[in-house]
Amino acid sequence: MRTIFFIPLALFLFFAGLAGYMLTQEKNQTVASAMIDKALPEFDLEPAYDGLPGASRADFIGGEPKLLNIWASWCLPCIAEAPQLEALKEEGVEIIGIAIRDTPEDVTNFLDRHGNPYTRIGADDISALQIEIGAAGVPETFVIDGEGSIRYQHIGDIRENDVPKLLQVLEDVR
Amino acid sequence: MIAELGLAALWLSAALAVLQMVSGALGLKIGDQRLAAFAAYARPAAVVQAFLAVLSFGMLLWAFAITDLSIKLVATNSHSMKPFIYKLTGTWGNHEGSMLLWVAVLALSGGLLAGLERRLKERTMNATLAVQGFVALGFYAFLLLSSNPFERLPVPAFEGSGLNPLLQDIGLAIHPPTLYIGYVGLSVAFSLAMGALITKQVTPDFAKVMRPWVLFAWVFLTLGITAGSYWAYYELGWGGWWFWDPVENASLMPWLAATALLHSVSVLAARDALRTWTIMLGVLAFSMSMLGTFLVRSGVLTSVHAFAVDPERGTFILVLLGLYIGGSLAIFAVRAGSIAEGKRFSATSREGALVFNNVMLSAILAIVLLGTLYPLLTEAFDVRVSVGPPYFNPAGAIFAIPMFIVMAIGPLLRWKSDKPVRIKLELIILALIVVGAIVLIAVLGDYPVLPVLGLALAAALGVAAFLPLRGRKISRTPLATWGMITAHFGVAVSLFGMATESAFTQERLAAVAPGSTEELAGWTVTLDGVDPVAGPNWTAIEARLSASRGGEEATLLNPQARNFWAPSQATSESALITRWDGQLYAVIGDTAGLDADGNQRWQLRIWWKPFVTFIWYGGLLISLGGILAIIGRVRVDLRRRKAVQLGNERRADKALLDQAATPPRAEPEPV
């Protein structure tokens, strides 16, 4: 018997052990956003709606953590998301909206029909902030802490079962 | 009934695999006559099993053909509105169906081996059949216990939920079955290697039996990889032909091992050298096939090829891997020392070159294996990495470049021992070609190192492939030699395609409104318009492009961005113009806003890929070379067998004649 002939077996056993271990591990497929823990980019947007002021980075500084909601009146999932935003508002969460490529009339119509959870709405007519903040689509929601850092990114519409998670994050970063 | 018939056939096959395994193993007992008599069952068991397993697959095919929605697998993977051909290909476009195809091919090749092969020592054959039965049994168990393809639904589905639209392509009809035949063909090589190792019969005769199986598997692997690469190229719409995706690597690794095995088995057949090495490669090649299956289906690695991923199945395959790979490597570790070392040879000889390239192929295999498994290793420590071309290309090239050089020279050397001086002229010619090509390209422009080296080596290899013909009579050259020449030339052609594609590809991404024109590499491409179109189970936007080059008449191109329903998914269908010197590749993307005049603009991506088709022509040539070699080897073998038979008959006749010619000696008269 020569030791050299045992090398393939040893290599294989190492692989089998590793693979066996990996199979038993819970697989986490979520990819963390690269924007997490980065400072919110500097911006200052005009109001998108007659009744509310516009939004800027300064609005997030100081006080409680807030939600930054990227949305648009032309976006169907945003309609689906509206009741959840309303629920968050009732929990006392301050939500600042950014309307992407929208018109004041459409925004007004949307809010009349689906309710208004926002305290401020900025108009991002050329998707400038949307791109800078790393949002690939509409809607997306960011948790911004009192120092103006991005702490959490939710991609897609907020479903009912996402609400507790968002509240938890808001609590955690307080 | 169809499903029950298929399931019953599958259970019977499994039972026969047990019989084959047990009777083959009992045949190894020499002393006991009663037990040894059982060995007679091994061959018939393998043959009948082949018939039943193929029948079982046929039943599933039938269920898919008539879209029997009471079968769960059909309901989840097919749809009554799907084109008929894709209903059929849907049979193996899913986990269970493809595993059934796998075992059907496994049983079929086992049956062919048992039915046709009479040259091996019976004891070796029994051991081989026992191993083959053991391997088959594991996969039957896997199918029957964890992925039954014939499972019925309690209530038949109203409509099927379709098939992954990416897979609704003729590529799917060709690519997986060819690969499977290749993978599973290697199982025969594996069983033969184990049989020879167990009975210590690693001889040139054994190598001659093994060679056609290795060639056969290798031809199919080559075809499968070639088809798969072309499929990914035009179907994924990314313009690339190799992505170093784990699943692609899973098909490449057995090919690398099989290529090495193919050459070492030839050395064993011709020169009785490289005994343990050949056995090791035989084990390795099939191990890589099974490893590939495990990686793809267990979901331990993330890949673009989305098979139904299931950790439980993963565990099952891992256990099978442990049994087969672990078991065979353990036997190898214990037994390999007892196989007498083969004949010796000097470094500068045909064997020397083959050994060198065997080592290089194995090194490339190790590189690919490491790169494929590395994410698994780091993930155990919670670090996520993705290993891609920046690792594989240079690391592979370190070994591929010396391999190509030796590949050009090796076939010119003599067996056993040779002096490089003898082939001085050839060496000088090849060196001049390499240097000349590098200088020429360096003058033309500034290109990356690897493609330039690739081009120079391709040129040298293209010439070197035909040099073995020098000093031979063309008409008397054996077919197997033609096979080698064709395959080696195919490697040169493929390498040329890869190098030109990566060095000289031109790309243009533009937002264009209908009516406007883009220029690329001498081509003029005009977007005439964009229309909505609909197919049997999809809707799409289709661009009408007219492309022309050098004032010739324009060719129409219709790339599409398709949306499938059931299940809903978007794919992009590229459109190609193929010319002798390359392909124009066009993809249409999303809308891209309005232009200054308020016209809708579309994202249009076009590539000019010079000589890209040579990559796949090369692959076809390599396979053709393999086919020629099989025909040549089998023909020579049959002729020799016939000659031996004729010789025997003649000797028998002569003995009879002699007997007749000599007058019978008078019996002494009884007194």
From TrEMBL, chain A:
InterPro entries: Periplasmic_diS_OxRdtase_DsbE (IPR004799), Redoxin (IPR013740), Thioredoxin-like_sf (IPR036249), Thioredoxin_domain (IPR013766), Thioredoxin_ResA/DsbE_sf (IPR050553)
Keywords attached to this entry: Cytochrome c-type biogenesis, Disulfide bond, Redox-active center
Coiled coil, from the record: none
Matches recorded under Gene3D superfamilies: Glutaredoxin
Thioredoxin domain residues: 34-174
UniProt KW Lyase keyword: no
Subcellular location field: Cell envelope
UniProt keyword Nucleotide-binding, yes or no: no
Transmembrane intervals: none
Family as reported in the entry's similarity comment: Belongs to the thioredoxin family. DsbE subfamily.
PANTHER family cross-referenced by the UniProt entry: THIOL:DISULFIDE INTERCHANGE PROTEIN DSBE (PTHR42852)
Protein name: DsbE family thiol:disulfide interchange protein
Organism of this sequence: Erythrobacter rubeus
TrEMBL record, chain B:
Molecular functions (GO terms): lyase activity
Subcellular localization(s) per the UniProt record: Cell inner membrane
Keyword flag Membrane: yes
Primary localization: membrane
Record-given protein name: Heme lyase CcmF/NrfE family subunit
Domain Cytochrome c-type biogenesis protein CcmF C-terminal intervals: 318-633
Alphabetized InterPro entries for the sequence: CcmF_C, Cyt_c_assembly, Cyt_c_biogenesis, Cyt_c_biogenesis_CcmF
TM region(s), chain numbering: 6-28, 40-65, 99-116, 128-146, 180-198, 210-232, 252-270, 277-296, 316-334, 355-374, 394-413, 425-443, 449-467, 479-499, 614-632
NCBIfam families: nrfE, PRK10369.1
Occurrences of domain Cytochrome c assembly protein (ranges): 92-298
Top-level taxonomic group: Bacteria
Organism phylogeny: Bacteria, Pseudomonadati, Pseudomonadota, Alphaproteobacteria, Sphingomonadales
Protein family membership: Belongs to the CcmF/CycK/Ccl1/NrfE/CcsA family.
Role this protein plays: Required for the biogenesis of c-type cytochromes. Possible subunit of a heme lyase.
Annotated keywords: Cell inner membrane, Cell membrane, Cytochrome c-type biogenesis, Lyase, Membrane, Transmembrane, Transmembrane helix
Topological type in the membrane: Multi-pass membrane protein
PANTHER family named among the record's database cross-references: CYTOCHROME C ASSEMBLY PROTEIN-RELATED, CYTOCHROME C-TYPE BIOGENESIS PROTEIN CCMF
